[in-house]
Amino acid sequence: MLVLQDALNALGFSTRTLDGIFGANTRSALTSFQRNNGLVADGVCGCQTWTRLVNEAVGIGRTSSVIDP
């Protein structure tokens, strides 16, 4: 969950915190990300959403914990 929140924050979709909880703020950020990327905005981080999110976030370096292969 922290990776999801961190990636969303790094891409400009604020979850307001890195707490590892899929609460209302994380769902809102995820839904906004989905809308902005032409995905079904259902607030569920399925395969298509996860793939798009990871492809955009990997290695961007905006935060110290963004995933980097």
Automatic annotation (TrEMBL):
InterPro entries on file: Peptidoglycan-bd-like, PGBD-like_sf, PGBDSf
Peptidoglycan binding-like domain residues: 4-53
Name of the molecule in the record: Peptidoglycan binding-like domain-containing protein
Species whose genome carries this gene: Amedibacterium intestinale
